[in-house]
C-alpha cells in the first residue's frame, strides 16, 4: 500500500509497499456504568480508526446482555503498518435490542484512545474509560490484549459438536454454546473463542471457526485449554452444563478421518452422584492447520527497537544563522532536518520501551578544543548520548547548533561502525533481543564511500537497519548505490551484503507530502529486514 491510497500525493513511483501484518485485539471491560433501570447495561464495543483526521468506524463487537464486566468474544482484526502511527478509539455503548447500538449520549458508557503500536508493544493495555469532555466514566476500565495473527505459528480451523448434553430448561431443551479458554502461566484464563448459541438442541453442531495458534495456545502444543459448555440465558445468567480440559497436542489427533471426543463434566455432579459419567460428550469433528510468517514475531517476542539519529553538521549546510541554511532555526516552522527527524522518530518511539534515543552529530568542530568529530553526542555527554524521546532530540539539536562550528568532510562510516559495535555487543550477551535502527540525516553525498560500504557490509550481519534521508537539493545519485535496490551493495573488496539493510530517500520528494508519507516510505522495509535477520 503506497501513500497514494491514503489520499496523499504519491511520493515516488518506487515507494515500497508496506509490510502488512494483522493483529488481533480482544477487549474486556470492568465496572461499566449501569444505564438501564430494570436490569444491567447490554454493552457493545465500537472500534474506530483515524483516517485523515476523521474517526471512521471499522468494526463492532457482539452485544453482551446484562453484564457490567463483559469479556467480548469478538476479535477485532486490524491491519498493522509498523511505519505509521495508527490511532484507535474504542467506544462502549449500551445497546437496545432491535434498535441496534444507539450513539446517543445517554447510551454512551465511555471511550478510550491509543495507537496500534502501543498495544502491540505492551501486549496488554488497561485504561480508564472517559465520557464526553474528559470526565471519568466512574471506575470503568477497558482492557485490550493484542496478539499477532501471522507469525511462523499460523492458524487452525476447528469444527466441534456435542451429543446428549444435560437439559437445563424446564419447558424446552438447552440452548448450548461452547467457550474455549487458554490457561496462562500465572493461573489466569484468556477467552480464545465463544461459539454461536444453538437453540433448543441437546446435540448441537457448532459452525467451524478459525483461530490463530498464538491465540489458541501461545504456540505451545502442550498448553492446557479449558472448554466450557453453557446453556444460554438472555438475562446474562448462563447455566453451566460441563467442562473438559485438553491441549492442542491432543486436538491434532482429529486430523484427516479421525475424531477426538471428551466427556463434558460438571464437577459438582461428579462429587454428588455416584454413577455420574458425564453431562454429555463434545466431539472435535475436524481440524486443519495453516502456517504463515511475519515481522510481529519479533516485536511481540519482546524485541525492542533501539533508535539512533545521526545529523550532518558539515559546512555545506550553510551557516545556521542564515535563513538559507538547512540548519536555520526558524521560530515559525521546523527546518528539513527536524521535519525528517520527527516524522520517522515518532513511529519508532512506540517500540522503544525506555523512549530514549541516541542522538549523534558528524562533520563539525566541537568544544572544548574545536577538533573535527564524526561521532559526537549532540547533548555533549560522551558517557550517555541518549535524549528523552523525540522532543529531547529536538531540544539537544537546537541547543548544540550555536556551540559547534560546521566543518567537514561528510564521513558516516564512524557512526555506522559505532552503532554496529553496540548491536554486536547486544547480540553477544543475548539477554534481550534488540534491533537497531540508525537514521542518518545528511545534505550531501558521503565522502568516505569506500569505508561506508565496508561498514554497511559488516553491519548487514547484525540486527540493524540504516535509513538515510537526503536533505536539501544536492545531487544524491551516488547515494542510491548504498540502497541495494538496483543491485547488491558490495564492500571495496567485493564482499556482498548479507541482507539489504539500507533505505535511502531524498527528502525533497516528500516536501509537499504529509510527514506520514515520509515515515511510511523509509520505514516500510524495516519489518522485512528484521524478518530476514
From TrEMBL:
<feature type="domain" description="C2">
    <location>
        <begin position="136"/>
        <end position="263"/>
    </location>
</feature>
<dbReference type="GO" id="GO:0071277">
    <property type="term" value="P:cellular response to calcium ion"/>
</dbReference>
<comment type="similarity">
    <text>Belongs to the copine family.</text>
</comment>
<dbReference type="InterPro" id="IPR037768">
    <property type="entry name" value="C2B_Copine"/>
</dbReference>
<dbReference type="GO" id="GO:0005544">
    <property type="term" value="F:calcium-dependent phospholipid binding"/>
</dbReference>
<dbReference type="InterPro" id="IPR002035">
    <property type="entry name" value="VWF_A"/>
</dbReference>
<dbReference type="GO" id="GO:0005886">
    <property type="term" value="C:plasma membrane"/>
</dbReference>
<keyword id="KW-0677">Repeat</keyword>
<dbReference type="Pfam" id="PF07002">
    <property type="entry name" value="Copine"/>
</dbReference>
<feature type="domain" description="VWFA">
    <location>
        <begin position="306"/>
        <end position="505"/>
    </location>
</feature>
<dbReference type="Pfam" id="PF00168">
    <property type="entry name" value="C2"/>
</dbReference>
<dbReference type="InterPro" id="IPR035892">
    <property type="entry name" value="C2_domain_sf"/>
</dbReference>
<feature type="domain" description="C2">
    <location>
        <begin position="5"/>
        <end position="129"/>
    </location>
</feature>
<dbReference type="InterPro" id="IPR010734">
    <property type="entry name" value="Copine_C"/>
</dbReference>
<dbReference type="InterPro" id="IPR000008">
    <property type="entry name" value="C2_dom"/>
</dbReference>
<protein>
    <submittedName>
        <fullName>CPNE7 protein</fullName>
    </submittedName>
</protein>
<dbReference type="InterPro" id="IPR036465">
    <property type="entry name" value="vWFA_dom_sf"/>
</dbReference>
<dbReference type="InterPro" id="IPR045052">
    <property type="entry name" value="Copine"/>
</dbReference>
